[in-house]
From TrEMBL:
InterPro entries: GH, GH10, GH10_dom. This is Beta-xylanase. It comes from Sphaerisporangium aureirubrum. PANTHER family: BETA-XYLANASE, GLYCOSYL HYDROLASE. SUPFAM superfamilies: (Trans)glycosidases.
Length: 319
């Protein structure tokens, strides 16, 4: 294969990228490379609740619409990200819960309306939704969030049922980070899935975010972890892959990064139920990493100038 789109056809794995809506609108080279290389798209921020309803009842769908429109035009599937999360919730909602002006019953109705509205708007256009994101903490407990605190653990089943009613054909996912390797988190997440399935809640997939760094050992158990989930009948996706490094960049670090990327895609390609490998931004020009990890960066498969890095070439050699 000469590019990732061809690789996607060969491996039968959708190969995706998160999209920065500002860059999509303003940078023609960014847009061109995105549409040439990728068969799947996730909005990096534009579908999150604070982006689509910044004030109560005032909806701003422009960014999300632009991502979906671009995908339709370029034969790309779309991952909806994300319906229920503890971050990037609108300020009006956080404040209303904090000052008690929104009580638990109203909060439940607000969440229901949000899911019906957003999933309904894109009905038929979203291949898979991240229904719940990061609901387990790193100790393996249910994450303490306004959702758990005010609605109890049943909010997860409710969210999946509402999303399924709003778009019966979308694949509905639980998505998290560190479940490539964190045993406590993996065990709890598996239990959530088993419990939902026992209750016949419509859950169809598990998303492994895949945020790695070369200063840590590669999570060698990832293939068997993925299999534990897919053996439950779920499909799988790697939803936010990136491989950061402590700067400066060196050829050795780029080689290690390339190996980590290749192993992640190989894990997906080797599991018959893993259908999507999405990177969390494809270019070092637009990446969340430098803003979050001081002194780290260069986590993507293309550099700032959209030149392919060793990681890109390594991906092309998968199978
Ligand atoms: O939109 C404002 C802009 O108006 C303002 O000028 C600017 C100044 O800081 O901030 C902008 O908002 C930023 C937003 O990204 C859009 O760029 C926020 O500060 C920033 O916190 C936000 O970060 C995003 C982060 O989620 C927030 O939790 C990252 O871009 C995004 O990559 C990241 O993505 C998450 C996934 O959704 C879930 N998994 C982990 C992943 C990485 O953290």
């Amino acid at each position: 294969p000469d590019n990732l789109r061809e690789l996607s056809q060969k491996t039968k794995v959708f190969i995706g990228s998160a999209v920065d809506v500002t860059a999509l609108a303003d940078e023609s080279d960014y847009r061109r490379t995105l549409n040439r290389e990728f068969t799947h798209i996730t909005a990096e921020n534009a579908m999150k609740w604070e982006s689509v309803e910044p004030e109560r009842g005032r909806f701003t769908w422009e960014g999300a619409d632009a991502v979906v429109r671009n995908a339709m035009r370029n034969d790309q599937k779309v991952r909806g990200h994300t319906l229920v999360w503890h971050n990037q919730i609108p300020a009006w909602l956080t404040a209303g819960v904090a000052d008690g002006s929104i009580d638990a019953a109203e909060l439940r109705g607000i969440l229901r309306d949000h899911i019906f509205k957003e999933v309904g708007r894109y009905r038929g256009k979203i291949r898979a939704w991240d229904v719940v994101n990061e609901v387990v903490d790193d100790e393996g407990n249910m994450r303490q969030t306004i959702w758990l605190e005010k609605l109890g653990p049943g909010y997860i089943a409710d969210a999946f049922r509402w999303a399924h009613q709003a778009d019966p054909h979308a694949k509905l996912y639980i998505n998290d980070y560190n479940i490539e390797w964190n045993a406590a988190k993996i065990a709890t997440t598996l239990n959530i899935v088993k419990d939902l399935k026992a209750k016949r809640v419509p859950i169809h997939g598990v998303g492994f975010q895949g945020h790695l760094g070369i200063q840590y050992d590669y999570p060698a158990d990832f293939p068997s972890v993925m299999k534990q989930f897919t053996d439950l009948g779920l499909e799988a996706a790697i939803t936010e892959a990136d491989v950061r490094m402590v700067l400066p960049v060196t050829p050795e670090k780029l080689a290690t990064q390339a190996d980590y990327y290749k192993r992640m895609l190989t894990t997906c390609a080797d599991n018959r139920r893993c259908v999507e490998f999405t990177v969390w931004g494809y270019t070092d020009r637009h990446s969340w990493v430098p803003g979050w990890f001081t002194g780290e960066g260069a986590a993507c498969v293309f550099d700032e100038n959209l030149a392919p890095k060793p990681a890109y070439n390594a991906l092309l050699t998968v199978r």
